[in-house]
Structures are given as structure tokens and as C-alpha cells.
Specification:
Helix content is 72%, strand content 0%. With 384 residues, it is an all-alpha fold.
């Protein structure tokens, strides 16, 4: 593998930038925190998915730039701080009354994308000192097209009436979402610093787990503490260990993957974790349609589990999952889903089954990891 980027550590400025996402994700989660006639409306789900797509996609574009070219320079820090302010402004317009702020929202998102375009433009016109970096600028041209088209599309939406502009806006966001897939398939020169990218995306997952912790905090008060508090806490721990077992221990950071699958597989991880978070309160609500809430909860679990396991082909060679491993994981999920739907009217049974499921998939992973590591590598775990 030809490394276009030397190994880099995550800078403090990047961690500071991530703090804005804590607030942004909480605003996005609030879009699906209220049931209407026992279920979530299609409008609420659409607002949630589009808001999350805008935020995470913008974060991903910034992260890829920092991963490939970014330094802790004054220029990059100023752009990052400007984007922090824009993200705060954008986050405060996320809500069920977004139509009132549509044009302001478009101007803010367009300006955020323009700063990303400007960063790539500056990098594109710089003369690389390393000859091995010459070919990488072909992929930079693609990134310029992507951010440029999104900037123009979102600004155009801001100039049009909302009944027309909303479709231009959605098309522009979806275009930005889809273009990298085509770009990396055609370009042999697109490479990333994989350890840095894994660390950055994992930090965003931690932020999403932080949103889950804030949701769980309501169950850890003197008034609300119960068996549900312990079961939900065990679910969260199992999901956390399952994720970081895969991405901190099993995945091969020395592989030559372009990182595009890693990025796109994390969208269902973020969505799944947020769905699980809001479902924890829904399951105990007497006004909820329990069949809907149970299904919603398990869709979130399924998205999370499937997206984590989908990265198995990029693991270290001795930790790549066999068909039998995938079969057991799928069987555990489908069994738990079936039993929970049958018992959907009883939240205690549903939560207990979900707890057993998450523990089971984590124990199954740990068993696989320990056996394979003992066979092919040196174990690095100790009791103390």
C-alpha cells in the first residue's frame, strides 16, 4: 500500500470541534422524542433522517479533509471555528417548525459547505512537495465538484419558495451523499489515513453513546430507579463493548481500504443508536403503541448490529467472521425480535429479551475473539 498521508494523531482542535456535535445530535434526537397517537409520524421520521444526514455528512466531509490534508494550521483552525458557529446556528433551527426557518437554514448549510469547498480549493492549488502526492489531487478535484455542486444547490434552494426549494435542497444533500461512492470507485488514488479515520468516527460514536447516557439518566433517579434502569444500562454496555471490540481490536488498521465503506456503514450505526435511545422511554409509555415501539426499538438494534458486523471483511485475517458466525448473530437477533413482537404488550419481557440479546451477541463476539487470538496472535488481556 502506498501511504499518501503519514500517520497523524487526532488534534485538540478536532476534539473541540466535535463538542458542537453533542448539541447538534441532541437537537436531532428531539425530533423523534414525542409520539402522536402512540406512534411516530412520517414527518417526524423524515425531519430526523434529513437533519442527521446534513449534520453527519458535513462532519464527514470536514473529517476527510482533515484526514487527508489538514494540519493544525491557523487557516484550518479558523475555518473549523467558523464551522462550529455555523453548526450551532444550524442546530438551533432543527425542529418541527423548521419550515419557518427554511431559507435561513439553507443559507447556513450553503455557507458551511462553501467553507469546505474553499478548504479543498486552497489545497488543490498548492504544489505538493512529495511526488507521491501528485496523483492524489485527481480525487481532490472530485471533492471540489462535490462541495461546489452542493453549495450552489443549497444556495439556489434558499432563493426559491419553500415548496420548490425543499426539493432542490434534498436533491443537493442526497447528491453529496451519493457522489463519494462513485468517486472512490473510479479513482484509484483516493486513500485515507485509516487509523486516524477510525479514531475520528469512533469519537463521534462516543458522542452518540453520550446521548444515550443522557437518556438513561432519567432512569437513575430516586423516583424512577427500577429493574429497567439496570437492564437498560446493561444494554448500553453490551452495545458499547460490541462496537469497540470490532473497531478497536478486530479491524485491521493496516489494510488498504479507502475508508468509504467505514464511513457509510456508520450512518446506520448513528441512526440505530438514536432509535434505541428514544425507544427506551417509549417502551414504558402507557400511551405508546407497543407493537410499533417494539418494532422501532428492534430496527435500531438491527441497524447497529448489522452495520458493525458488515465491517468484518476488513478485520485482521484471523478475525474475519465466518458464515457460521454471521448465522449465529442473525439467529440471535431474529429469535429475540420474534419473541419480543409476540410479547410486545409487556415492556418488561421485551426489555429483558433485548438485554439477553445484546449480552449474547457480545459474549459470542468475545468468545470468537479470544479463541482466534490465542490461535494466531499474542493475547493482550489481563485481569489486572
Amino acid at each position: 500500500m502506498t501511504n499518501l498521508i503519514k500517520h497523524k494523531r487526532v488534534e485538540f482542535s478536532e476534539l473541540f470541534y466535535d463538542l458542537v456535535l453533542v448539541f447538534a445530535i441532541s437537537k436531532t434526537t428531539a425530533l423523534i422524542h414525542h409520539l402522536h397517537n402512540g406512534i411516530l409520524t412520517w414527518n417526524s421520521l423524515f425531519d430526523f433522517f434529513m437533519s442527521l444526514l446534513v449534520l453527519v455528512n458535513s462532519w464527514m466531509i470536514q473529517t476527510v479533509y482533515t484526514n487527508r490534508y489538514g494540519k493544525n494550521s491557523l487557516f484550518n483552525m479558523v475555518i473549523m471555528f467558523i464551522n462550529m458557529g455555523l453548526l450551532l446556528f444550524i442546530s438551533n433551527m432543527i425542529g418541527h417548525d423548521w419550515q419557518l426557518y427554511f431559507h435561513s437554514f439553507c443559507w447556513a448549510v450553503g455557507t458551511l459547505t462553501l467553507t469546505l469547498f474553499f478548504q479543498y480549493l486552497v489545497e488543490y492549488h498548492r504544489k505538493p512537495t512529495d511526488p507521491s502526492n501528485q496523483t492524489s489531487f485527481k480525487s481532490t478535484r472530485w471533492l471540489l465538484w462535490m462541495t461546489g455542486l452542493r453549495t450552489l444547490g443549497v444556495y439556489l434552494a434558499a432563493l426559491l419558495p419553500i415548496n420548490v426549494g425543499i426539493y432542490i435542497f434534498i436533491l443537493s444533500i442526497l447528491l453529496t451523499f451519493i457522489m463519494p461512492i462513485t468517486m472512490t470507485r473510479k479513482s484509484k488514488h483516493f486513500q485515507v489515513n485509516l487509523p486516524h479515520l477510525i479514531e475520528r468516527i469512533s469519537l463521534l460514536v462516543i458522542i452518540t453513546f453520550g446521548e444515550m447516557i443522557m437518556g438513561l439518566a432519567n432512569f437513575f433517579t430516586i423516583e424512577n430507579f427500577s429493574i429497567y434502569s439496570l437492564l437498560y444500562f446493561m444494554i448500553m454496555l453490551s452495545l458499547f463493548l460490541f462496537y469497540f471490540g470490532q473497531f478497536d481490536h478486530a479491524i485491521d488498521e493496516a489494510s488498504d481500504q479507502k475508508g468509504i465503506f467505514l464511513i457509510y456503514s456508520h450512518y446506520p450505526i448513528f441512526i440505530g443508536l438514536i432509535m434505541i435511545t428514544v425507544s427506551m422511554s417509549f417502551l414504558l409509555s402507557p400511551e405508546a403503541n407497543h407493537l410499533f415501539v417494539t418494532s422501532f426499538f428492534y430496527i435500531g438494534l438491527g441497524l447497529f448490529q448489522a452495520a458493525v458486523l458488515a465491517n468484518g471483511p476488513y478485520n485482521k485475517h484471523y478475525l474475519r467472521y465466518s458464515k457460521g458466525f454471521y448465522f449465529v448473530q442473525a439467529a440471535l437477533y431474529l429469535t429475540a425480535l420474534t419473541l419480543s413482537l409476540i410479547c410486545a404488550s409487556n415492556p418488561m419481557i421485551v426489555v429483558t429479551i433485548a438485554t439477553i440479546l445484546t449480552l449474547a451477541i457480545e459474549i459470542h463476539f468475545i468468545h470468537f475473539y479470544m479463541i482466534q487470538t490465542r490461535k494466531h496472535s499474542t493475547p493482550d488481556w489481563d485481569l489486572f
